[in-house]
Specification:
Helices cover 35% and strands 2% of the residues. By secondary structure, it is mainly alpha-helical. The protein folds into two domains: 16-170, Cytochrome c-like domain (Cytochrome Bc1 Complex, Chain D, domain 2, Orthogonal Bundle), CATH 1.10.760; 174-311, Cytochrome c-like domain (Cytochrome Bc1 Complex, Chain D, domain 2).
Length: 327
């Protein structure tokens, strides 16, 4: 073999190796989706399994201002991890926590569908994402790793965001430790708050149900006397839905002030005071909510607030895998 032939063969071998490296990545790696004890099974779309590569892309996009056409905002601009992915300054923000179990989104349920469909709405309608801005080499490589080719589409971006959202699971509070058998995880006041929360005296558990601490349904809890055309009723056109708003999860509720759909209450104490003595009547008031409130004593109110603060999941609020990716 001549020296020229040897160089040609070597070049061909290098080209083949490079081709295999760039295109033959193999299938994306499935992500271990273990859930906290007591959580219901997580719905996962058949056409969008959760993978390490998909989550990595979704995380990048969640924090990437290139998702917006003018480069001014990302999902994380309004959803701050330290506040359980909510915001203290943007009105009407619902926390991005445990959304994988939702099928209605926004306070009035203005969007209904799967998590993937909700993220398509976010990408295409809310952000109006221009995929040209995402066609950068490092992002195209991530799309390639997640979906098999470097093609950048709004659907793929939304699917990656949905995969990342499925990792935003909070279930590691002191209350969870208490439920798992650690009697010392809660103080005496917090334990009294638990008993009150799950009693017919305060009725909290009916709407803030299961380990998700929400029924993901809509209720009129007596915030306003005039409810015509508001809340869920504004979406469905059914007057029976007037004044009904989505039940938010109480996970990390101490970190998600202000409260209610219009941010009317600044503190948990104000929220509990409302339930204790501020409920007003209206045509669609939920039957479990008494006009005038539950008449809770000062001690009962303090115990409920103590329990609500015990729902904080510090690990979720500081988990580096949910924070901004390294630049």
């Amino acid at each position: 073999m001549s020296a020229v032939d040897a160089r040609v063969l070597a070049a061909l071998a290098l080209a083949l190796a490079a081709a295999c490296t760039s295109t033959d990545r193999g299938p994306p790696e499935p992500l271990d989706e273990r859930l906290p004890a007591g959580f219901p099974p997580m719905p996962v779309a058949d056409d969008n399994p959760t993978t390490v590569e998909g989550v990595a892309l979704g995380r990048q996009l969640y924090y990437d201002v290139r998702l917006s056409p003018d480069g001014s905002r990302a999902c994380a601009s309004c959803h701050h991890q330290a506040r359980s992915f909510s915001s203290e300054s943007v009105t009407g923000i619902l926390p991005h926590v445990n959304l994988a179990w939702s099928r209605t989104f926004l306070w009035d349920g203005g969007f209904e569908g799967t998590l993937e469909e909700a993220m398509i709405m976010e990408v295409e309608d809310f952000f109006g994402t221009d995929v040209v801005l995402l066609r950068e080499p490092e992002l195209e490589a991530m799309f390639d790793a997640a979906f098999g080719t470097g093609e950048v589409t709004t659907r793929r971006a939304a699917y990656a965001l949905a995969q990342f959202q499925r990792t935003m699971v909070s279930g590691g509070s002191r209350f969870d430790a208490y439920l798992e058998g650690d009697a010392g995880a809660l103080t005496a006041a917090e334990q009294r708050g638990v008993e009150l929360f799950y009693s017919e005296r305060a009725e909290c558990f009916h709407c803030h149900a299961t380990r998700l601490l929400t029924d993901n349904a809509f209720h009129n809890i007596g915030l306003d006397a005039e409810v015509t055309g508001s809340g869920r009723g504004a979406v469905t056109g059914d007057e029976r839905d007037d004044g009904r708003w989505k039940t938010p999860t109480l996970r990390n509720v101490a970190m998600t002030a202000p409260y209610m759909h219009d941010d009317r209450f600044a503190t948990l104490e104000e929220v509990v005071d409302f339930y204790a003595e501020g409920v007003v009547d209206s045509a669609t008031l939920d039957t479990l909510v008494p006009i005038g409130g539950y008449r809770l004593s000062a001690g009962e109110r303090a115990d409920l607030v103590a329990f609500l603060r015990a729902l904080t999941d510090d690990g979720f609020l500081t988990d580096p895998s949910l924070g901004p990716p390294a630049r």
